C-alpha cells in the first residue's frame, strides 16, 4: 500500500521538479532585462488595481500589500552595512570626505526587489478570489494611515542618506565628451 502512494507521488514530484527548473531558467534569462521586467510588474500591478477597483473590496489586502512594498523599498534604499549599527571589515559607506570611494551595496538587490514585488502582487491578486480576505473596512482611514507611515519612513531614510552622504541610485555610466586636443578643434573655418 505504501508503494502505491510512493508511485503516485513520483510523477507529481517529477512535474514539480521540471516546473521549478523551467521557472528558474526563465527567471535567470530575465535578469539582464530590467526594463522589461519592470514593465511586466507594472502590468501585474495594474491588473491587481483593476481587480480591486471593480470588486470594490479587499482593502485590507491592499493595505497589507502597501506595508510590504514599503518594507521592500526601505531595504532597497538602505546600504548593506548600516554605519549607525554595524562595524564591518568589508566595504562600508565613506563617512568623511577623506575616506576612499566605496560603491553603494544595497541591503536588497534590484533583482530580489523586483521579484519580491511581483510575487507580492501575484499573491495579493490570488487573495482577491477568496471572500475570507474581504474584511469590511473604511478604506480612506487605511489610505491616510499608509500615507503618513510612508512620509515618516521616507523622511527618516532621507535623513539617513544625508547624514552618511550616499545616494542609492545609479544613473548609469558617466559619459564623457570627445577629448579636445590640438588636432580636435570644433571651431568652424570660414
UniProtKB/TrEMBL annotation:
<feature type="transmembrane region" description="Helical">
    <location>
        <begin position="137"/>
        <end position="154"/>
    </location>
</feature>
<feature type="transmembrane region" description="Helical">
    <location>
        <begin position="60"/>
        <end position="81"/>
    </location>
</feature>
<comment type="function">
    <text>Involved in the retrieval of endoplasmic reticulum membrane proteins from the early Golgi compartment.</text>
</comment>
<protein>
    <recommendedName>
        <fullName>Protein RER1</fullName>
    </recommendedName>
</protein>
<keyword id="KW-1133">Transmembrane helix</keyword>
<dbReference type="Pfam" id="PF03248">
    <property type="entry name" value="Rer1"/>
</dbReference>
<keyword id="KW-0812">Transmembrane</keyword>
<feature type="transmembrane region" description="Helical">
    <location>
        <begin position="113"/>
        <end position="131"/>
    </location>
</feature>
<dbReference type="GO" id="GO:0000139">
    <property type="term" value="C:Golgi membrane"/>
</dbReference>
<keyword id="KW-0472">Membrane</keyword>
<dbReference type="GO" id="GO:0006621">
    <property type="term" value="P:protein retention in ER lumen"/>
</dbReference>
<comment type="similarity">
    <text>Belongs to the RER1 family.</text>
</comment>
<dbReference type="GO" id="GO:0006890">
    <property type="term" value="P:retrograde vesicle-mediated transport, Golgi to endoplasmic reticulum"/>
</dbReference>
<dbReference type="InterPro" id="IPR004932">
    <property type="entry name" value="Rer1"/>
</dbReference>
<dbReference type="GO" id="GO:0005783">
    <property type="term" value="C:endoplasmic reticulum"/>
</dbReference>
Amino acid at each position: 500500500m505504501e508503494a502505491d502512494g510512493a508511485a503516485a507521488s513520483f510523477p507529481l514530484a517529477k512535474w514539480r521538479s521540471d516546473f521549478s527548473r523551467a521557472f528558474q531558467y526563465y527567471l535567470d534569462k530575465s535578469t539582464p532585462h530590467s526594463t522589461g521586467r519592470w514593465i511586466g510588474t507594472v502590468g501585474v500591478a495594474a491588473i491587481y488595481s483593476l481587480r480591486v477597483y471593480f470588486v470594490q473590496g479587499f482593502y485590507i489586502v491592499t493595505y497589507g500589500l502597501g506595508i510590504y512594498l514599503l518594507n521592500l523599498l526601505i531595504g532597497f534604499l538602505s546600504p548593506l552595512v548600516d554605519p549607525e549599527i554595524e562595524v564591518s571589515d568589508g566595504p562600508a559607506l565613506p563617512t568623511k570626505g577623506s575616506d576612499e570611494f566605496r560603491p553603494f551595496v544595497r541591503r536588497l538587490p534590484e533583482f530580489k526587489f523586483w521579484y519580491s514585488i511581483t510575487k507580492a502582487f501575484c499573491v495579493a491578486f490570488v487573495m482577491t478570489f477568496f471572500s475570507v480576505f474581504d474584511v469590511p473596512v473604511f478604506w480612506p482611514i487605511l489610505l491616510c494611515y499608509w500615507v503618513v507611515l510612508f512620509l515618516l519612513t521616507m523622511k527618516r531614510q532621507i535623513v539617513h542618506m544625508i547624514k552618511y552622504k550616499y545616494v542609492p541610485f545609479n544613473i548609469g555610466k558617466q559619459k564623457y565628451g570627445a577629448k579636445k586636443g590640438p588636432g580636435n578643434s570644433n571651431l568652424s573655418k570660414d
